[in-house]
Amino acid sequence: MALKFLIPLFFYLFLLLPSTSHGHNITRILAKYPEFSTFNHYLTLTHLAGDINRRLTITVLAVDNAAMSSLLSKKLSTYTIRNVLSLHVLVDYFGAKKLHQISKGSTLTASMFQSTGAAEGTSGYVNITNLKGGKVGFGVVDGDGKLNAHFVKSLKEIPYNISVLQISQVLTSAEAEAPTAGPSELNLTSIMAKQGCKAFADLIKASGAETTFQTNIEAGLTVFCPTDNVVKSFAPQYKHLTASQKVSLLLYHGIPVYQSLQMLKTNNGIMNTLATDNANKYDFTVQTDGEDVTLETKVTTAKITGTVLDQEPLVIYKINKVLLPKELYKAPEAKPPKPSKNNGDDEEEADAPSEQESDDQTADENGAGGLMDGGRLIMIALSLCMGILFM
Ligand SMILES: *[C@@H]1O[C@H](CO)[C@@H](O)[C@H](O)[C@H]1NC(C)=O
Ligand SMILES: *[C@@H]1O[C@H](CO)[C@@H](O)[C@H](O)[C@H]1NC(C)=O
Ligand SMILES: *[C@@H]1O[C@H](CO)[C@@H](O)[C@H](O)[C@H]1NC(C)=O
Ligand SMILES: *[C@@H]1O[C@H](CO)[C@@H](O)[C@H](O)[C@H]1NC(C)=O
Fold first, then answer.
1. Using a 6 Å CB cutoff, which residues line ligand 3?
2. 0.70 exceeded by pTM
3. Measuring from atom 6 of ligand 3, which residue has the nearest CA?
4. Is domain 183-319 given the CATH code 2.30.180.10 in the classification?
């Protein structure tokens, strides 16, 4: 019946809703406060501002210019300052009220330092503890156990979206301040191995493709790594490739330019890859599908599911399928579309055409926005209906 179909649709659209709204802009939020201008400047310089704006549930622990100047007096490199400041970005929402109501009075929460590739174990976690007299202390878990900073005031709160709080001191740790490798010293395979892409990293090392990836970092490199489960289920097929086909398949997962998520969203179109070599095109098409970015080869369509590292000039994304180039694999024959029975987020095996089959390349950019607005309208109408039905 129609209702059976409408209820899941309603929930689906509901889930989509937050991601269709316009993001916040940390630069603009902080611009109102001249006493945070240094902190704000360094968020931009280290590209953390973009990372903050992309996240939907986030807390920024801002420090004033005086606190920043004590950090700057250490003369750390920009890359290292990025690591220190990424400890100030919590990937959870803490408004002033929630800070004072932490259960059992103390909690550990992950910061963005956790995803820099530099953090080991719990060193990317921040300890928030309610202290005597209503004070709230902050400290880095990796440190000496001291809570060296405390909550000063709330600057901006958009509940469960973004919270910007002032704390008294810079949070730092030996690990965050450790000299950070310049881009050319970043070890691609070990960064990937630490973040759920070990299987793919192992293939890159074993095949000899590592050098090509490494030497491209400095000039800009974007890598799409299929996650461990995806690579594991692809292993039987991979085995049948010759050594040079293996290298081509792996190089097909890198593009020789830095492309932030925002850039990928706006630069839809054909991308050359590290495997592209005159006659062998080895290209794929980047498409934006709502808030998702998909990579379409003629054989398969993969979706970006997360960011392993975004540190210009290198960015590494997780994807949910191995990219199969048409140079190595036959494109599937046109089949009548069949409904997917798999509603989970695990789409590895769904080879059925996506619901957006008739993507019109030219009507793309503006069309997508229009569609989303239409979707939201339907959602609102449906939620009203549902509300009435369930009353
Ligand atoms: C998050 O903040 C942005 C910018 O203020 C706003 O447009 C959006 O609606 C908010 N999202 C939610 C889920 O509140
Ligand atoms: C955020 O705001 C700043 C200052 O108003 C502006 O320069 C910047 O382009 C904005 N960023 C985004 C992603 O809109
Ligand atoms: C946070 O740090 C304080 C002070 O070192 C400590 O007593 C507390 O147990 C820590 N909290 C957690 C959840 O580890
Ligand atoms: C990266 O690190 C791994 C393991 O630590 C090592 O085997 C590999 O040779 C390194 N690669 C480069 C390019 O330094």
1. 106-108, 127, 129, 139, 145, 147
2. no
3. 145
4. yes
